[in-house]
Each structure stands twice: as C-alpha cells, then as structure tokens.
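Students often ask why we bother encoding 3D structure as a string. The short answer is that it lets us treat folding as translation between two languages. Here is a chain of 210 residues written in the first language.
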Amino acid sequence: MATVLYITAHPLDPQESFSLAVGKEFIESYCEANPTDEVIHLDMYKEYIPQFDADVLRGWGKLRSGLSFDQLSDAEQSKVARLEAIVDQYVAADKYVYVSPMWNFSIPPVLKAYTDATSIPGKTFKYTQNGPVGLLSGKKALHIQASGSVYSEGPLASLEMGYSYLNKVLRFYGIQSLEALFVEGTASLDQASAIKEKAIAHTAEIAKRF
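And here it is in the second language, the structure alphabet:
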C-alpha cells in the first residue's frame, strides 16, 4: 500500500477551477486503479503552514545552539513543532500530486509556503562534502497546472515558473520520477471546456501508470 499526498492550492472548488476539476478526476481514477492506497488531501488554503518568521528562525537557532525544545517560547514551540509535523508527513509519503493554477507565472503563495516547509535539511535533503543530496529517491510526483495561456512551450515558455520551480525543488529532494499535466489556454472561452475535457481524458491514462 502506498501513501499519496494530494496537495491542492486553489481557494475555489472543482466547479470553478480548471486545475481542481482535472485534479479531482485524476485522483478518482487513481483511487479506482489503486483501491488499497491511502490518499491524504492537503488543501493549502485550509492547512496551517507557519511562515519562516522570527519565531521559527529563533526557535531553530536555539535548538542548534543546544537548547532543549522546552526552552523555546510558546510561539516558537508551536511553529517549530508544526513545521516538523509537516515535513515528517511529507517524507513518510510515497507519491505526491500537486494541483495548482499558474498565478503571475508561478505557483500560489500558499504552495510556496508549503515547499518552504518541506525543504528541510536532514529530512528531504542533506549537505555533503560534494554538495546537497536529495533523500527522497524512489518516490513519484505529478503536477497538474492550469493557465490562461500556453506556457509549457512556444513564445511564452520562458515565463513559466510554476512547474519549472516545483520540478527543480522535487529533483533537489531526489525525486526523479516527475510528470506534468498542463491545462493550458483556458482564457480562450470558446475552447476552455474542450481543453478541460481533453486534460480530464488524459488523467485516466496517467493514473494507471502513476
């Protein structure tokens, strides 16, 4: 049995969001093909993800200096413990499905906060004499990204910083099996429905091999 983190980063629902509509169809197809797997839905707009603020940085600094967890302030303890729980859950999973829109050429801020929370030395990567090494080899990831224009190829490709960012982060973690499903061109209202349906049709194929 595998554990899948279904990570969504859109404040609306599948009826209003292209990325969530496709993501919903994918995860349903995946569950049908893999009934014994555990799927955990993490809605980034409902999860508490501490920012890397003064409490977090000071708390980590105190722990590195040799102080015990009990010697941290209440705020430091709360945020540091929550961040550790987030990354531990991430490391324990086998597969990751990210679902997000492209906003301002990149991912929503809540998803960036989540990648910050999972980018922890000693958890998802480690430093060595030869440079950083990812610790999550053997795991799989899929990113479903919706955008109004086409950014995966063509004249706007250089502006795409959503999937390209996650691709770099996850490969830094050691995850080499990484796939993208782009739901692109949805700003063309006369074609948006067909674009969504084409992506949804593709989800069943991806789900079988994922």
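Translate back mentally: The chain is about 40% helix and 20% strand. Keep this in mind for the problem set.
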